[in-house]
Design brief:
By secondary structure, the protein is of the alpha+beta class. It has 2 domains: about 5-140, Jelly Rolls (Sandwich), CATH 2.60.120; about 150-390, AhpD-like (Up-down Bundle). It has 16 helices and 12 strands. It has helices spanning about 35, 130-140, 150-160, 165-170, 170-185, 195-205, 210-220, 225-240, 245-260, 275-290, 290-300, 305-320, 325-340, 345-355, 360-375, 380-390, and strands at about 15, 20-25, 25-30, 40-45, 50-55, 55, 60-75, 80-85, 90, 95-100, 105-115, 120-125. The strands form 3 sheets. Strands 1, 3, 4, 7, 8, 9, 10 and 11 form an 8-stranded antiparallel beta sheet that branches. A two-stranded antiparallel sheet has the order 2-5. A hairpin with a 5-residue loop joins strand 7 and strand 8. Helix 7 (about 210-220) crosses helix 9 (about 245-260), helix 8 (about 225-240) runs antiparallel to helix 12 and helix 15 (about 360-375) packs antiparallel against helix 16. The two termini are about 50 Å apart.
Length: about 400
């Protein structure tokens, strides 16, 4: 049950609401009084589960901005509307209505109420238990999500006590996706949870999926991926995805880490200097890719040789040589980014061979590709498997 105590409250609860106008327990915090504006008032209202207003109406209307929980809004003679975080309700003038929490969830909204010579609100009769129960059954047209025990268990590992709004608005999609991604797909291969989440996290950056990245970043912290490891995933994406696309992910990462009480900046992880970056980067390139690097330098036209030097000094010297991950993990992360980017088949093949050279066999690579499937889709997955089979035939 979603209770008042586990909400991420924006404002204090305020004063307990009058039982004359509310059934159950609610708190009202007046943020902007009417006497300071003359025309409108703004308040924050927190409802305990099952609490609702009386029927009432506003001479000049009202606006509700839902900030947490799950609740209902109903106009007289009309169907009940289910409300969740992010919903906005514009209530017309003189329309009888009520609003309040669902029976199994607390509910919070901000109200903006216009004032008139007739006042701001006209209170009417309480909403009866029968009316409230009727609205619950009406709103429960949403099919119960039928998830497997494995899907529930694996989801809970990443997102403990998470209340999914999509289970309310899109139950059929959640049933299909969660049973697939958190049961069927996870059951393939033997990647540990931390590795799986890190690869997914890297792919979301390359996919430019900022909202999903936020979700997976929280999951990463929940399963013990360290702030240094998270930062290294973001940093390593820069030479492959580009700073223009990574910029927002850096800021979101900082915001989430700081919200968890993690002080920034983190300890330096760089192991090279301006004088050694090229030498150490080239050495590491050759360790991963072997004689291919000498061939790339030899075959490069003279007017393009600077790009090869950039790869050695910048991509590998500046990024790959950093602490935080071993080379095997960095190669898996790079492969995950390249798969999610799409259109990178030559680079995917090169890094499949690089993965093999540093000790990641076909079984591990196929496991990574499989775990990315729900997040990058079938076309990119099938392209990656084609590259895998060309480099490492069955």
């Amino acid at each position: 049950m979603n209770t008042i105590e586990n909400q991420n409250a924006i404002f204090p609860k305020g004063e307990k609401a009058s039982a004359d106008y509310f059934t159950g327990t609610a708190w009202v915090n007046i943020l902007v009084p009417q006497d300071e504006t003359g025309s409108y008032a703004i308040g924050n209202v927190v409802f305990e589960p099952g609490c609702r207003t009386n029927w009432h109406k506003h001479p000049a209307g009202q606006i509700l901005l839902v900030t947490d929980g799950k609740g209902y809004y109903q106009e007289r003679g009309k169907p009940t509307r289910l409300l969740i975080k992010g919903d906005v309700v514009v209530i017309p003038s003189h329309v009888e209505h009520w609003h309040g929490a669902a029976h199994d969830s607390s509910f919070t909204h901000i109200v903006v109420t216009n004032n008139t010579k007739q006042g701001a609100v006209e209170w009417l009769a309480p909403v009866t238990d029968e009316e409230y129960s009727s609205c619950q059954s009406e709103s429960s047209k949403t099919k119960k999500v039928n998830l497997t025990e494995a899907a529930i268990r694996n989801h809970e590992e990443l997102f403990p006590n998470h209340k999914s709004t999509l289970q309310i608005t899109d139950p059929e999609l959640i049933e299909v996706f969660d049973n697939f991604a958190f049961d069927e797909v996870i059951s393939y291969g033997d990647l540990d949870t931390r590795t799986r989440v890190m690869m997914i996290l890297a792919s979301t950056i390359a996919s430019q999926a900022l909202s999903e990245y936020k979700v997976m970043l929280s999951a990463a912290l929940n399963v013990g991926i360290t702030p240094v490891e998270i930062k290294e995933i973001v940093y390593q994406s820069v030479p492959y995805v580009g700073i223009a696309k990574v910029f927002d992910f850096i800021h979101v990462t900082n915001e989430i880490l700081q919200s968890r009480g993690i002080k920034l900046p983190l300890e330096r992880q760089s192991t090279t200097t301006p004088e050694t970056r090229f030498e150490k980067g080239l050495e590491l390139q050759k360790e991963i890719f072997g004689e291919m690097i000498d061939r790339m330098y030899k075959e490069s036209p003279e007017n393009q040789l600077h790009i090869q030097k950039y790869l050695s000094a910048n991509c590998f010297g500046d990024y790959y040589t950093r602490n935080g991950f071993d080379i095997k993990t960095r190669e898996l992360l790079t492969l995950s980014m390249l798969i999610a980017l799409g259109g990178t088949e030559p680079q995917i093949k090169g890094h499949i061979q690089g993965n093999v050279n540093v000790g990641n066999d076909k079984k591990i690579l196929l496991s990574v590709i499989t775990q990315l499937l729900p997040y990058v889709g079938y076309p990119r997955t099938l392209n990656a498997i084609k590259c895998l089979n060309e480099v490492i035939p069955e």
